[in-house]
Specification:
The complex is a heterodimer of chains A (386) and B (214). With 386 residues, chain A is of the alpha/beta class. Chain A is built from 9 helices and 15 strands. Chain A has 2 domains: 2-188 and 298-382, Rossmann fold (3-Layer(aba) Sandwich), CATH 3.40.50; 192-291, Rna Polymerase Sigma Factor, Chain: A (Orthogonal Bundle). Classes of the chains: A alpha/beta (386), B alpha/beta (214).
């Protein structure tokens, strides 16, 4: 492997580092195919201690990236988890060495469908192999191995990040001292697969998609991807939050237009969400990553018994859900907690009262911070860090 | 359940917590049902270095527990115990929780499957103050141990010591040790059976073994 890019410039207030690791070795995928070579882009904050016992891995969600804290150099916007990472915050770079990598299949530096296929010299497009959550975790494990980290103090993530956290505990239990799946699930539900299918069909229905070969046509399925994002964005919120923020308020007008312009603020907001999203996200990546989530079902590889995934696990778990999350509802977290209890695993579970829907995990939720501070301090103490 | 714990603080100063702590062997695996804000688990962790887990019904209680580093899940004794494995714990504790469950008999049965020993404490409804209250006032008893009104009490299944002993018989549970609390003093008694104990005890605490040798 070699390091091809090292950007140590200050990433906002907490000074993260952005790098890409290129692996010449093959990444064995669950589908049976291999990815070779492959790259993993990541950012890190803080310093690895001498014992290498203070490493924390952050797993990002569907449309997230490695720029969890500081400023995102691709969008010039603050990192997606600035609320969580920083001095005095639950993930404190003064105490921990914090890593966040872009998932395999993604589009902000790790190998994905927009990367160049070494066999053709052109972007993979749909020739990119189908990847799974397990494959994402395997790539992360290779990265940590390259960084000389044997055991993670904690692996933490929300939504699809929560899925990766559970997969880490399933695939590499001995490497995970503690695990914090937030607003996650051990399987993707029928309703969630349905929403993803709507998004994928919107992309594929766009004439500019060109069966995934839009790079060659020097275009992008912008409208399809925007519609996919708009539909998905609704699922990240709650009716209460939408009503509070927008109600039936009109956008830049005093009266209805009796047409199909964005009369309502909510329409204008969704259109904005859709069109800013296409600036930063690859449509094929969206297809691949949503597919990976749909395929996710940890119990399936344990004869349908989720508890089997966590048998004899020494990992300490802290499962977190939100009351108004209808995409990854509390019932999914309880399903995980029951399996962990059945396996005799060490588990804490907190449901946080919030009306902000699934996206609550990205927002300022003091009760969540309090819970995570308590859990992390206790875990750090057990690991001999405090 | 946590509300209930709080309501009992006034009378005993939760002396039963220290008693429970004394009864538990070091390094054991302990499940505390209705653990409130985690006072007992915290005590057991610091004094007996136990591997402790808790189940608590109130979100505020669970959050407080997790924030102080305890392994606690939000759950309901009536609904969630079936997910725990057989003999997963050395001790299962029901501290002032039994009388707040929907089905105390099912909860005891489940716990006897999960824990090798059970430690159960509850307010004794046959205490003389309670009896006098009902007899002379003709109203549902409100005492310093049972300080809620009939319409807002979490204690939906109050029982007496005799009731508890008879339920243990029915469920094939063996009472190993008995303690009573009266006039703010905890007393170890050879047998808690008999009309006198039932009359003077404000609270009772039992160590019950789940498997009767036959």
């Amino acid at each position: 492997m070699q390091e091809i890019q090292s950007d140590t410039s200050d990433k906002g207030s907490i000074g993260g580092e952005s790098k890409v690791h290129v692996f010449d070795t093959a990444l064995q995928l669950v589908s049976g195919e291999c990815l070779q070579p492959f790259s993993v882009a990541y950012c890190s904050w803080g310093k690895l201690n001498a014992d290498k016992s203070n490493a924390i891995l952050i797993c990002h969600a569907l449309t997230g990236d490695q720029f969890a804290a500081g400023d995102n150099p691709m969008t010039q916007r603050p990192g997606w988890w600035n609320t969580m990472i920083g001095p005095g915050k639950p993930l404190d770079p003064e105490k921990y060495f914090i890593i966040c990598s872009n998932v395999i299949g993604g589009c902000s530096g790790s190998t994905g469908p927009a990367s160049i296929n070494p066999e053709t010299g052109k972007p993979y497009g749909l020739d990119f192999p189908v990847i799974t959550i397990t494959d994402m975790v395997r790539a992360q494990e290779k990265l940590l191995d390259a960084l000389g980290i044997d055991t993670l103090l904690t692996v933490i993530g929300g939504s699809m990040g929560g899925m990766q956290v559970l997969e880490w505990a399933n695939s590499f239990p001995e490497k995970v001292f503690s695990a914090i799946p937030i607003a996650g699930s051990a399987r993707h539900s029928a309703q969630n697969i349905a929403f993803h299918e709507v998004g994928r069909q919107a992309i594929m229905a766009d004439i500019d998609w060109h069966s995934g070969n839009y790079h060659a046509e020097k275009t992008q399925p912008r409208k399809g991807l925007a519609v996919a994002r708009m539909a998905a964005h609704i699922t990240y919120l709650s009716e209460t939050a939408l009503t509070r923020k927008f109600g039936r308020n009109l956008q830049d007008r005093d009266a209805l237009s009796y047409g199909f312009e964005a009369d309502f603020q909510i329409e204008s907001y969704l259109r904005h969400q859709g069109f800013t999203f296409v600036e930063r996200f690859d449509a094929n990546s969206y297809l691949y990553i949503t597919r990976a989530m749909d395929y996710f079902d940890i119990a399936a590889e344990h004869n349908g018994k989720l508890a089997g995934a966590f048998a004899n696990s020494d990992t300490r778990f802290c499962v977190v859900s939100f009351t108004s999350d209808w995409l990854f509802p509390t019932s999914e977290s309880i399903h995980v907690v029951r399996a962990l209890n059945a396996a005799g695993a060490n588990v804490s579970f907190v449901e946080i009262e919030s009306d902000k829907g699934h996206d609550a995990f990205l927002l300022d939720e003091p009760e969540m911070f309090k819970t995570l501070n308590g859990f992390l301090s206790s875990v750090a103490k057990d690991r001999g860090l405090a | 359940m946590s509300e209930n714990n709080a309501s009992l603080t006034s009378i005993s100063g939760r002396k039963d917590l220290q008693l429970i702590c004394d009864l538990i062997a070091s390094e054991s695996r302990v499940l505390d049902i209705g653990c409130g804000e985690g006072d007992l688990l915290d005590l057991l962790k610091s004094e007996k270095n136990i591997d402790g887990r808790g189940v608590e019904i109130s979100q505020a209680g669970v959050n407080a527990c997790v924030a102080r580093g305890l392994s606690v899940v939000q759950g309901d004794a009536d609904r969630d115990l079936k997910h725990f494995p057989d003999n997963g714990f050395d001790y299962a504790i029901l501290s002032q929780t039994l009388q707040a469950t929907q089905r105390p008999d099912s909860v005891l049965k489940e716990l006897s499957r999960i824990g090798k020993k059970l430690i159960v404490s509850f307010p004794n409804f046959a205490n003389w103050r309670v009896r006098f209250y009902l007899m002379f006032k003709g109203r549902m008893p409100v005492t310093s141990t049972l300080d809620a009104q009939w319409y807002n009490t979490p204690n939906i299944h109050l029982c007496t010591i005799e009731d508890f002993i008879s339920l243990c018989d029915e469920l094939d549970l063996k009472i190993e040790k008995s303690f009573i609390l009266s006039n703010d003093k905890i007393k170890h008694v050879e047998s808690s059976a008999g009309p006198i104990m039932n009359l003077i005890a404000e609270q009772a605490l039992f160590v019950v073994s789940s498997h009767i040798e036959k």
